[in-house]
Design brief:
2 copies of one chain form a homodimer.
Chain A: E1 2-11, E2 23-33, E3 36-43, E4 46-52, E5 59-67, H1 69-78, E6 81-94, E7 97-104, E8 112-118, E9 131-134, H2 143-146
Antiparallel strand pairs in A: 1-5, 1-8, 1-9, 2-3, 2-6, 3-4, 4-5, 6-7, 7-8
Protein name (chains A, B): CYTH domain-containing protein
InterPro entries (chains A, B): CYTH-like_dom_sf (IPR033469), CYTH_domain (IPR023577), NeuTTM/CthTTM-like (IPR012042)
Pfam families (chains A, B): CYTH (PF01928)
């Protein structure tokens, strides 16, 4: 098990967009229960099955396994809860930390969120100028909730 | 994706018991929804993450991935729906077919079920004398249902 510790912010400008090329992600859920999330994700030519435990503050257990892309396609189209989440992810390195900026499509179009993964819950970091309000504790922004209660209905 | 085609019978005698040594299995569910089952299983020194789709007659899609036993232990104890299923499985070969006889413990103690995996839905086979009533279509006998509605409550 790994521990995922991350903080999440709304994105308030778009000058980060020219820094890197995005990758397109398509993901869905075999379980979207808060304490046992099972996610299938295709990113470029790779696919991953990821299990996440209960969030405690900004930390949660995570188990991740690579799977064949053809399996992931079958699972996404045939088994996962619908609709799927589709987004572009921009990975931006700032002072040794990787910021992941997600630009959502479909019913979540208009939503842009930045996440930074930390090594400890109290780790200090520089917040980029294009980051606004912190939403780490707002469960509406969890991808496993966004497909059920999309941004366009808020 | 593989297709799992199997027929299931109640076991009415115990002379099969002397034929082979059993393996002990401990398994639990990250999703027990009928159309997207996610199962974690430890058998001896190996562990497997298995995804099963919707049952259509006696067939269903199945995707299976080996995972580290230590991960499976964490998932079974920390994330899976409780209680877990514990059983002894006896694998008995009869005329080129493998019969799996499951002897359940815990709240399902007293239940003994035999399954045979087939290559096609209409494949002919010899039913052993210790097999009684067929329960292939009775969803109460699905392991993903047995932990929620155990045999002792029937």
């Amino acid at each position: 098990m790994g521990i995922e510790i991350e903080r999440k912010f709304l994105v308030v400008a778009d000058d980060w967009k020219t820094l890197v090329k995005p990758v397109f992600m398509r993901q869905g859920y075999l379980s979207s229960q808060a304490n046992r999330v099972v996610r299938v994700r295709i990113e470029d030519q790779t696919a991953m099955l990821t299990i996440k435990g209960k969030t405690e503050g900004i930390a949660r257990g995570e188990w991740e396994y690579p799977i064949p892309v053809s399996d992931a396609q079958e699972l996404l189209d045939g088994l996962c809860e619908q609709p799927l989440i589709e987004k572009n992810r921009y990975r931006i390195v700032i002072e040794d930390l990787v910021w992941e900026v997600d630009e959502f499509f479909g019913d979540n179009a208009g939503l842009v969120v930045a996440e930074v993964e930390l090594n400890s819950v109290d780790q200090a970091f520089v917040k980029p100028a294009w980051c606004g309000e912190e939403v780490s504790h707002d469960h509406r922004y969890a991808n496993a909730n966004l497909f059920k209660h999309p941004f366009k209905l808020w």
